[in-house]
Design brief:
146 residues, mainly alpha, two-stranded parallel ribbon, 6 helices, 2 strands, globular
Length: 146
């Protein structure tokens, strides 16, 4: 990310690094979104907020029917990283943190991530409020750069 002029905070680097090892094992967008949430829950400012809201590390129970894999998904980590840099730049920041990664995940996964947050007993607005994030999105409004 140095080519963008934005510094990558250690917690954000950790999230993106761990995600890059976890995503190849996800078979669907929903599984990717869940992996992002589990990684974000453990790191940085976002991790503190998610834990305070009661978001657990435990994966949600799966339906008993096998899920067919999505055949042609773009590289999830590359998509989130690109969006993360764009959002941090549009927010006027000189560095990239876990809040930027969260906002990027919300932009990339949209309703899939929102459903996951609801299943864990929270929602996008509550998470952003807990973070004190000034960036808010309505259901119809896309995050910056999407």
């Amino acid at each position: 990310m140095s080519a963008t002029g934005l510094a990558l905070a250690p917690d954000a680097a950790m999230v993106l690094g761990i995600a890059s090892t976890a995503m190849p094992f996800a078979r669907t967008r929903e599984e990717e979104a869940e992996r992002w949430l589990r990684v974000l829950r453990l790191h940085g400012e976002v991790g503190i907020a998610l834990q305070a809201l009661g978001v657990s590390e435990v994966p949600l129970p799966r339906e008993s029917e096998p899920v067919e894999a999505d055949p042609a998904r773009p590289d999830a980590v590359a998509a989130v990283t690109e969006q993360t840099v764009r959002i941090a730049g549009e927010r006027g920041l000189h560095g990239v943190g876990t809040v930027d990664v969260l906002l990027a995940v919300m932009a990339v996964y949209g309703e899939d991530f929102d459903r996951l947050l609801r299943a864990h007993g929270t929602d996008r607005d509550e998470v952003l409020e807990r973070l004190g994030a000034r960036v808010r999105y309505s259901e119809d409004e896309a995050p910056p750069g999407s």
